[in-house]
Amino acid sequence: MGEGENVPVPGRWALSMLGYGNLAALVNDPRAQPRGWEEGHDVEGEAAAGGANCAVVPVVVRGVGLPVLVALRDVAPGQQLLRDYGAAWWRGHEAAWGVAEHAGLRVAAVMHPRGALEGLAP
């Protein structure tokens, strides 16, 4: 998008993976700063792989390949499931993320339900 172009933005945005795929869509990546264009990002490197506590393993059953989520170590009840999406996954989303931020969308506003933002820093 060029400087000064208007982008249609609805009043409120929300992001939810429920209804798309299965519950594996709710497994997050351990990266704290995945914006590859910002200083201090952690897209590249081994830290994300070390923070993952599960992985997707392809399993073939009767000739059909199925993705199976497998724990890499013990996962305590209530602990968040984290898998390394890989640097290429984050790099592939940089353009869309940039468009959203150019339109004035904050990541926190997109990823949290209405009413949950009052306690978050701007």
TrEMBL record:
CDD domains: SET (cd08161). The lineage of its organism: Eukaryota, Viridiplantae, Chlorophyta, core chlorophytes, Chlorophyceae. This is SET domain-containing protein. InterPro entries: SET_dom_sf.
